[in-house]
Amino acid sequence: QVQLVESGGGLVQAGGSLSLSCAASGNIFRINAMSWFRQAPGKQRELVASITRGARTNYVDSVKGRFTISRDNAKNTVYLQMNSLIPEDTAVYYCAAEHVEDFRVRAYWGQGTQVTVSS
C-alpha cells in the first residue's frame, strides 16, 4: 500500500502564487509517473500536469507557462508551482502516482487539497 498526502492549498488572490506538494509513503517499490489533477464544482476531474520518473513533463493547455511540475525521486514527492493564478484555477487538486507492484502498475490518489483563487 502507498499513501499520498498533499499539502499547500489555500486561498490566494488572482495573480498570486501557490505551491503544492505531495509525498508518497508506505511500502514503496517504484513510482513511475506522478500527476496533478483538479476538479472544480460541477466539472469533471481533469489532468493538470504529469511528470515521468525521468522528468518528462506534460501540461494541460490552460496552465502552460503558469504552472510547473517537478519531483524528487529520492523523497517520492511531486510538486506543483502555480503562478499567475486565475479564478478558473479554483478546484480541489489531487495528486496521483503510478506504483509498480506485483508486476503491474497500480494508481494511487491523494485526498485532495482545496485551491481557491479570488478575483
Summarize the structure.
By secondary structure, the protein is an all-beta fold. The protein has strands at residues 2-7, 10-13, 18-26, 30-39, 46-51, 57-59, 67-72, 77-82, 91-101, 104-109, 113-118.
Shape: elongated
Distance between the ends: 40 Å
State the helical fraction: under 10%
Number of strands: 11
Average pLDDT, to the nearest integer?
A: 96
- Strand proportion: over 45%
Q: Largest sheet, if any?
A: 7 strands, mixed
Question: Can you give a write-up of this model?
Answer:
A hairpin with a 5-residue loop joins β5 and β6 (57-59). The chain has strands at residues 2-7, 10-13, 18-26, 30-39, 46-51, 57-59, 67-72, 77-82, 91-101, 104-109, 113-118. The protein contains no helices and 11 strands. The model has no long low-confidence stretch (mean pLDDT 96). Strands 2, 4, 5, 6, 9, 10 and 11 form a 7-stranded mixed beta sheet that branches. Strands 1-3-8-7 form a 4-stranded antiparallel beta sheet, with no helix packed on it. By secondary structure, it is mostly beta strands.
